[in-house]
Design brief:
Elements: H1 2-19, H2 24-33, H3 38-59, H4 61-64, H5 71-90, H6 94-129, H7 131-135, H8 137-153, H9 158-168, H10 174-198, H11 204-224, H12 230-253
Helix pairs in contact: 1-2, 1-11, 2-3, 3-10, 3-11, 5-8, 5-10, 6-9, 6-12, 8-9, 8-10, 9-10
Length: about 260
Amino acid sequence: MTEILLLLAGLVGGALNSLAGGGSFIVFPALLFAGVPPVLANASNTYAALPGYVSGAAGYWKSFAAYKNRLIAYGIVSVLFGYAGAELLLVVSDELFSKSVPWLMAFAVALFVFGNQINAALRARGGERRGMKALGSALLLVLLAAVCVYGGFFNAGLGILLLAFLAMAGMTDIHAMNGLKLYVSSIVALVAVVRFALSGSIDWYHGSIALAGVTIGGYVAARLAHHIPTLWIRIGVIVYGVGMTGYFFWDAYFV
């Protein structure tokens, strides 16, 4: 039953990632319910998400190739601070991480709910002020560093944070933004997975079942995307995410 649960969670999570985002809200809790300790479950969730990031970035290559002048700087920041986030996770005890999970989930759900409005507002401001010039490239890289630390520590919500960052950097082409988002996510996840693997912090068995489901679910959903109303999916993800957040708060603080 555990394996079936993880495979189904991976299928649904991968489909959500392709259609609306929020797949980690499904896969991470499923790993916890399967008995994987919290820190290992978080690391294994990052491992399960990695192939989707890489394949997505490859698929968007033509869209963000025009911004190749940013790839080296963004890549260096992603490596250094994605590693820092992964290192931070490894020094946190399961008990402390369990206490932080509901807050991280609440933050990620809030980003999912309000991400479109945040990104629209930041794109408008970036277009008016030419974000890079107004804020300075150094300040933007500091912001990217903070986002990558978050991504290395807790994967859920990373994509929305990256879209907000790119909007602040003055970008308006959503396809290029999605490509760069997946490029950075791929590097952060890869560095984190390598660090987690070296420390023995990935549950390879359960994580690989989830990974297989995520990969298949993402592919199938991408082929069927035009048949499924995105709004309905977003509403379902929000309701589920709020429910899971409430459950984790109850489990962490009231049980």
